[in-house]
Amino acid sequence: MNEAEAALERIFGFTSFRPGQRDILEAVFSGENILAVMPTGSGKSLCYQLPAIVRKGLTIVVSPLIALMRDQVQQLQRSGVPAAALNSSNSGEDNAMVERGLRQGRYRLVYVAPERLVRPDAVALLRAAGANALAIDEAHCVSQWGHDFRPEYLGLAQAARAIGDLQLIAVTATADAPTRADIIRKLFAAEPRVFIRSFDRPNLRLAMRRKSDAARQIETAVKRHEGQSGIVYCASRNGVEQLARTLSANGVPALAYHAGLDAEIRSANQDEFLRNDGVVIVATIAFGMGIDKPNVRFVCHADLPQSIEAYYQEIGRAGRDGLPADTLTLFSDSDILLRERQISTSDAPAERKRMERRKLHALIALCETPRCRRQTLLAAFGEASQPCGNCDICEGKWPFFNGVVAAQKVMSAIHRTSGRFFSGHLANLLVGNATEAIRKHGHDLLPTFGVGKELKPAEWRSIFYQLHAENLIAQDPEDRDRWIFTETGRSVLAGKAPLTLRGEITLPSGRKADLRRSLQDIDAAQAKDPALPRATFDPGAAPPMLTAAQHRLLAALKAKRLEIARAQKLAPFVIFHDSALIEMARRRPTSNEDMRAIQGVGPSKIERYGAIFLAVVASCENDA
């Protein structure tokens, strides 16, 4: 550990470990196999990079994305670490050179795509090269319960055994309990040491809104971040191209990315995003996993994500530098119905469909929750928390009303249908809509048929998911197709406990008739001003405010960084992260010793870039 701490400062420029890293590193140095679940931006990579640097032998790193391999190898090489990558994007000559280097023992880390690692020739090469550890990045890809299942990951355990007695270090940012159990079953011969850090990303502001004019809502949110990088996700390729054109026509430098584009165009657009600030990528879920750009300042969803895990993974691409970042998710009833149809009509086994429905319902509950979004999100991963003050609910962007009577009506409908029906059917029952399914099951004869005509079906569906989010109703652990009441729910049903639900308007005291007003109609009126407020991120966790002179110096430092990055064909953050430049602007270093005191500025970077950036500071000194 002493050597690791010295390498942390010498190579990476950090004087202390981030929370959770020390415990994991101690387990790695003890030779244990580990599974580490850590939020994005918490330093998962260091948990296998540092041991590889200070120990003898070779560490194999499996990554699902060539772009991620390239960026990590570039950063390691720039810091003086002998690292290389074997993948299909290399020329034959480049791969041959890496293979020679492996045979000669020149590398500490080699990054390999999973489909290459399982090949017999790669197994033989890595065995001969003395590999002693296998780090598996994005380990959730091995699980069919995960949202990014990659069949090629299923061969990793067998490849590890064929190479030799490898220590396994599996890391991921996204894995709930079923996914973790599946990862362990698929990768490890025996129970590993499991580390689970908090899933919380407190620097991310969470916000959700119902769609009114999605393109305009997204454009308004994006323009609040002029000159900053961001990602906008769409559910379809057509949606991606239309929104990218709309944003571009309105002055936003937006590029499209989806699997239907030519590979060269995708690669060029991704490189433009990684290497330049102010670029917005409009993409399907084909973009993003492993993208390690630290200064993404916002992530928007123009459509409902596929699951709660997918949502968490996708918003996690913002603010990896720890600085404040915004998220906005738009959703609609048609999004929900489409996703439900996709699950129902898929060829997946019944158990897989049940798991996907459970994750979808958790996501819908997050969209409809009447309480702190961060509390609701973390609860979906089994983590308790307090109201965050950094989401649209905590900021008071939504009004509330006494929801006891509405909850009692929903729970009565659940009880009288034996808990076997979901939100859409129950909403039709409450408003008295005699659909074919309602008549088929005789539910048009129930006393609850039509008792909720004061609201529209969409409003009842919202209330249903709010009850789920508030843990008044839950899916039976023994029978996921059945809804049951919790103890809290039974208290509300009996009129023994209060309940506040989220609406679209503020209901004056005693004005129950206002509840009959359409929540959707009022939401459409609110959507005339869909701009999100600035984040109320804890100022104690945010960087100090810069003066006007410091802002000018920061702009000059970023310009120099971009000039160097373009000349060397690197992503700017490979040279210095934004957080390091902000500290330079604030402290105005005049020597290498001053530079060394800045987090993320290690000796190797000072040797390579120190004089250049000190000269920029000196040239701006008269502007102080």
UniProtKB/TrEMBL annotation:
The keyword Hydrolase applies. Residues 13-209 form the Helicase ATP-binding domain. It is an enzyme of class 5 (isomerase). It comes from the Bacteria. It catalyses: Couples ATP hydrolysis with the unwinding of duplex DNA by translocating in the 3'-5' direction. Keywords: ATP-binding, DNA damage, DNA recombination, DNA repair, DNA-binding, Helicase, Hydrolase, Isomerase, Metal-binding, Nucleotide-binding, Zinc. SUPFAM superfamilies: HRDC-like, P-loop containing nucleoside triphosphate hydrolases. Its EC number is 5.6.2.4. Residues 402-505 form the RQC domain. Pfam families: DEAD, Helicase_C, HRDC, RecQ_Zn_bind, RQC. GO terms for molecular function: DNA helicase activity; hydrolase activity. The keyword Zinc applies. Residues 547-624 form the HRDC domain. Residues 241-322 form the Helicase C-terminal domain. Belongs to the helicase family. RecQ subfamily. This is DNA helicase RecQ.
